[in-house]
Amino acid sequence: MKTSTSIAKVCDDIKSLLLEKNAKYGDSALNPKRIFSQSGSTEAILVRIDDKLSRIATRGFRGEHDEDTLNDLIGYLVLLKVAARGHVEPESASTSSSITIDLNQEPI
Length: 108
What we know:
Number of helices: 3
Structural class: mainly alpha
Radius of gyration: 17 Å
Number of strands: 0
Oligomer: single chain
């Protein structure tokens, strides 16, 4: 396979992964619900990038065994670039709703 074809395939795979996760988790990376953490979306993405880099630094790079970690890392870097551009709006009006959790409530 040509290098240019491989690059296109990897980029397409990352794009599909990001769009799938964005739909599945409700745009939580760039428009989080902020249930517990009050960190901004950029700070939260940076923490996730740190976690992925820490995993690689701790265990070493293991090639194909780290494909999920690499995909996540690349995805978070793309999300960081999107956030840095500052052109992000919530996917729907429902993303601005808040959730209240009573931590003193008795377990069911």
